[in-house]
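Lab meeting tomorrow. Please check the following:
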Amino acid sequence: MSESPPADSEPARRVLITGLSSYWGGRLAQALEAFGEIEAIVGVDSKDPTRELERTEFVKVSNQHGLIQRIVRAARIDTVIDTRLVVDSSTTPRRETHENNVIGTMNILAACAGDDSPVRKFIFKSSAHVYGCEQDDPAFFTESMGRNTRPSTAIERDAVEAEASVVDFAVKQPNVTVTVLRCSSVLGPDVRTSFSRMFALPFVPMVLGFDPRCQFVHEDDVVHALEHAAVNHTPGVYNVAGDGVLALSEVIGLLGKRPAPVLPPWGTGALSGPLRTLGIRIPDEMLNQLRFGRGLDNRRYKASGFEYGYTSRETVTAFAEHLRLHPIIRGVEQTYTYEGEVERFLRRSPLTRPPDAAPEERSGTEAEPFGI
């Protein structure tokens, strides 16, 4: 992937976020709304948003490149941030996952391509699954390293294929700054992952005879990493992972849990089926992590000016605190439900302006019409 800066490379001004209904899309939109230099934010998805947004314009649309292309051009989008990649096979049916990860990525890239496209920056939230997880892997993967074996799981194949499409796009569109963020395993109070579900169990399953190294990145740091790419010039591929690694047994101790070395060292997939009856769902792409672990070298993104808020250890201890408090605060948590008609009224009706405001001042930011 070329890393020479385009002559007209600038911070994001008009941003389109794909996957707005996903955890990452919603969190990122909320974060970018605080940046005054970003004048417009558009979120697209086939499902309604799951987070309350103030000035992000939502367009309900599938991943069809023709429709997204019209939005990109009509809204004069200069920055596209693709947050849709599904990295946990336990959350989405396989066919839908492949359609989203591989076909969807190609469609988004096609919508951004062309000599007449206003897009000058493309940011892709990827996954450490591109590296795989094998016995003879290096202690820490750098961005220049490839995987030692062919992808062994469907999610890994998806991540590799999706990234290949992004790299091909970067070669064919040299006027676009392309950033790929390969995120390590994520933990946090809000995001739901296979690791967070497993760590919430009273006994944490382990593979007999293995105590793999674990590296985590806090959910807030992932959002800040996406922000950093949006407002800075960061062409190329970057690992996103907290400093340091921990043995799985150490993680379990920090969480105040007990290990349960019940999985056989080989043929683990055969036993993971019966575990599902106990509420333990271990996705295929996670099995080798429970054997061998994986580490990412995070120095390159830090060299670009990015600062992490949490180390791997601090991420685990923060999650432990969340597990301790969750039973207490669970009863007062409030969920957000998107109501399109209400949102349009609050944003655009002159009746919703503050009592002392001038007639043209309104409580919401009214975006220019897209003309689609």
